[in-house]
């Protein structure tokens, strides 16, 4: 059963230098994300990944198209959707001088819930930092804490925007383990990434976006079979990076 | 009326404020320090003049003259040998040396007293000479058994001392509440946006009204506590009395805080960066600091500026608070200021609700 259904989702922004003209940040994207999937969205910078997520999260207005999460229309009933989703944003700074436990209690209060902050910190392996401030955490710890904040309402869908960007390999693998664990508990996870290994090994299915459009969507294996250029002599297949470059080209983006 | 969510968020805002030691220090102690410094700088009791007297006469008249000098608060009298006092004068120990001649008694007519001064202290002489002359005149009257033809009596028309400090207190309180309020809404919103906190809050089910209520509640508490501390300090340490009703005074504080919180929400919605809010914030704060009669009365400003000064929100607030604090005015008596406050409150509230659009401000 699809937990997220997106049909012809479109977002226009005015051009920075010519206000009268608009460019399509997201161009009529249609997706179906199944319950219990780990779904990855790949794309070069400016491809429209974050804008797509922000439209699903209710942060950005939808210009046209329909987005349903758990059967609820995002535009018509944003507050009902917010109750069912957990969100980790790219920027994850919090109020100064407030401890992890206090922040988790606050986030729970925003959902009108009571949580056991220490149990939540246990899930992301941060119990020993309970009274620390977010600024005192390492990059990997900050990401795990952001995920803990996104879990206070026991969401059905968890959105992660570039969760492993800037992390060292240990922190990255640690975070993947956490994401798998959450997924094993039945949570649907939608993430954006620039990390090909992440897309290939973590995600059940991936969508590749470029210039606001969806250029491919399938399981990593199917995409490799279909798009990776087969080396003429060697029997080895390419990897997702080859697929990505074959589909979006080698040109540098900002 | 208030939801647990709003109370919880307000409590977090209060915690943030209390844990930020640096700004806590500046916002809580700066106005108090400021008042203390002004209190000393404008102390009505001038430093006493260090006066040396070389008594070469030793007559009862000389003794009475010295007694008269010693009983005057203006002078700090030292007695001694002329040579020693002269060198003391050169060394800066004394400002002035009076040499009483041997002939200073009631028998001699027209004894001449010598004043020895340091040229650097000459500026004070214009004040000291008449006092000395008056003392001599008093003794002369006494000795000759005559009564003076004319005397001066001082009468305070308001029958209470209106010191500069008493004038300053309400203005400074108004200024402090303006700064705390604008910082509380405007500056904080820009900071929360820059850090992505507003975006993060937006994806939770919190309503903008909850967020605004929490900020307003937390800031009201901060402002009330802060101003009360300042007021207690002024009343009990600096001995300034609040003449009017405390409830009227706090009523104005409450309305004023709401005005500047609303204006802060407007500024925080317009300014997108930290630099922008600093610039716009100062544009709002600084002219009011100098034009709104905080440090000196609006009446003493150039006539051209006065009408402009009077329409500023802080002018209405400061003058209302001052009328209550210094002159014991009732709310009815300060109706013009109250109207000014009401107009600004409505204006600021309408502007704030127009400009503070949750989704746009979060981005």
Would you give an account of this structure?
Chain A has 254 residues and is α/β, with parallel strands linked by helices. Helix content of chain A is 34%, strand content 26%. In chain A, α3 crosses α4 (117-123), α3 (100-110) runs parallel beside α5 and α5 packs parallel to α6 (169-184). Chain A starts with a strand and ends in a 6-residue tail after the last helix. The model of chain A has no long low-confidence stretch (mean pLDDT 91). With 363 residues, chain B is mainly alpha-helical. Chain B folds into 2 domains: 4-41 and 162-362, no CATH class; 49-144, abc type-2 transporter like fold. In chain B, 65% of the residues lie in helices and 6% in strands. A 4-stranded mixed beta sheet of chain B has the order 2-1-3-4, sandwiched between helices. In chain B, α3 links the parallel β1 and β2. In chain B, α1 (4-19) crosses α8 (208-237) and α6 (164-194) packs parallel to α9 (246-270). Chain A binds chain B through residues 57-61, 79, 82-83, 85, 87, 89-98, 102, 105-107, 109-112, 149, 153, and chain B through 4-5, 8-9, 12, 15-16, 19-20, 192, 195-197, 199-206, 359, 362-363.
Supply database-style keywords.
heterodimer, A: 254 residues, alpha/beta, Rossmann fold, six-stranded mixed sheet, four-stranded antiparallel sheet, B: 363 residues, mainly alpha, abc type-2 transporter like fold, 2 domains, four-stranded mixed sheet, 14 helices
């Amino acid at each position: 059963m699809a937990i997220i259904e997106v049909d012809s989702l479109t977002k226009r922004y005015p051009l920075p230098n010519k206000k009268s003209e608009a460019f399509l940040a997201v161009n009529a994207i249609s997706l179906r994300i199944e319950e219990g999937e780990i779904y990855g969205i790949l794309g070069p910078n400016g491809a429209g990944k974050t804008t797509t997520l922000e439209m699903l999260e209710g942060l950005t207005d939808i210009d046209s198209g329909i987005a349903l999460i758990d059967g609820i229309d995002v535009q018509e009933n944003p507050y009902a959707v917010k109750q069912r989703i957990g969100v980790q944003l790219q920027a994850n700074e919090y109020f100064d001088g407030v401890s992890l436990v206090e922040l988790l209690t606050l986030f729970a209060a925003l959902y009108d819930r009571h949580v056991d902050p220490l149990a939540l910190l246990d899930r992301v392996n941060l119990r020993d930092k309970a009274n620390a401030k977010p600024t005192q955490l390492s990059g990997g710890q900050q990401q795990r804490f952001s995920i803990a904040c996104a879990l206070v309402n026991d969401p059905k869908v968890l959105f992660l925007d570039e969760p492993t960007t800037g992390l060292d390999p240990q922190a990255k693998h640690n975070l993947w383990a956490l994401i798998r664990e959450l997924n094993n508990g039945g949570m649907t996870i939608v993430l954006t990434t620039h990390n090909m290994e992440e897309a290939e090994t973590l995600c059940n299915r991936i969508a590749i976006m470029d210039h606001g459009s969806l250029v491919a969507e399938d399981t990593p294996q199917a995409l490799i079979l279909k798009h990776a250029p087969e080396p003429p002599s060697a029997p080895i297949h390419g990897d997702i990076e080859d697929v990505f470059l074959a589909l979006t080209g080698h040109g540098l983006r900002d | 009326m208030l939801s647990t969510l709003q109370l919880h968020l307000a409590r977090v805002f209060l915690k943030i404020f209390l844990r930020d030691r640096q700004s806590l220090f500046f916002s809580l102690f700066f106005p108090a320090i400021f008042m203390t410094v002004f209190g000393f700088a404008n102390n009505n009791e001038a430093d006493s003049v260090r006066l040396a007297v070389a008594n070469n006469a030793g007559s009862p008249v000389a003794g009475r003259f010295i007694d008269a000098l010693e009983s005057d608060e203006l002078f700090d009298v030292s007695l001694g040998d002329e040579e020693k006092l002269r060198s003391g004068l050169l060394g800066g120990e004394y400002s002035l040396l009076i040499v009483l001649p041997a002939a200073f008694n009631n028998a001699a007519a027209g004894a001449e007293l010598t004043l020895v001064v340091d040229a650097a202290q000459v500026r004070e002489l214009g004040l000291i000479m008449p006092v000395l002359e008056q003392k001599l005149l008093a003794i002369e009257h006494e000795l000759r058994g005559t009564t003076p033809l004319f005397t001066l009596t001082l009468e305070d028309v308001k029958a209470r001392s209106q010191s500069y400090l008493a004038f300053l207190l309400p203005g400074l309180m108004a200024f402090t509440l303006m700064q705390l309020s604008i910082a509380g809404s405007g500056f904080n919103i820009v900071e929360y946006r820059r850090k992505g906190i507003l975006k993060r809050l937006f994806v939770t089910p919190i309503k903008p009204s909850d967020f605004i209520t929490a900020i307003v509640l937390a800031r009201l508490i901060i402002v009330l506590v802060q101003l009360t501390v300042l007021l207690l300090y002024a009343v009990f340490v600096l001995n300034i009395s609040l003449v009017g009703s405390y409830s009227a005074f706090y009523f104005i504080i409450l309305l004023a805080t709401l005005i500047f919180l609303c204006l802060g929400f407007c500024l925080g919605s317009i300014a997108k960066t930290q630099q922008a809010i600093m610039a716009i914030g100062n544009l709002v704060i600084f002219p009011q600091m100098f034009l709104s009669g905080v440090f000196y009365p609006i009446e003493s400003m150039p006539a051209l500026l006065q009408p402009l000064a009077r329409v500023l929100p802080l002018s209405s607030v400061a003058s209302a608070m001052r009328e209550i604090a210094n002159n014991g005015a009732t709310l009815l008596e300060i109706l013009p200021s109250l109207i000014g406050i009401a107009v600004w409150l409505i204006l600021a509230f309408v502007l704030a609700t127009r400009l503070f659009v949750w989704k746009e401000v979060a981005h």
